[in-house]
Amino acid sequence: MLPSTDLIACPHCDTLHSNASLPEGAKAYCVRCGVVLKQERSTAIVSVLALAMSSFFLMVAAISFPFLNVSVAGQSNSTSVIGAVMAFSETFTLPLAAAVAGFIIFLPLMRLGAIIFAVTPLATGSTPTRAAQSAFGLAEALRPWSMAEIFIVGVAVALVKVAGLATIAFGPAFWAFTLLVVLTAWQDTLICRYSIWRALDTQQV
Amino acid sequence: MAGTGHTAGLITAREAGLVACRRCGQVQEQDVVSCPRCHATLHSRAPDSLQKVWAWLVAGLVMFIPANVYPMLITDQLGSHSESTILGGVVDLMHHHAYGIATIVFVASIIIPVGKFMAIAYLAISVQRKWVLNMHQRHKLFDAVEFIGRWSMIDVFVVAILSALVQLDSLASINPGIAAISFALSVVFTMLSAQSFDPRLIWDADRADAT
Question: Does the structure's ipTM exceed the value 0.85?
Answer without folding.
Answer: no
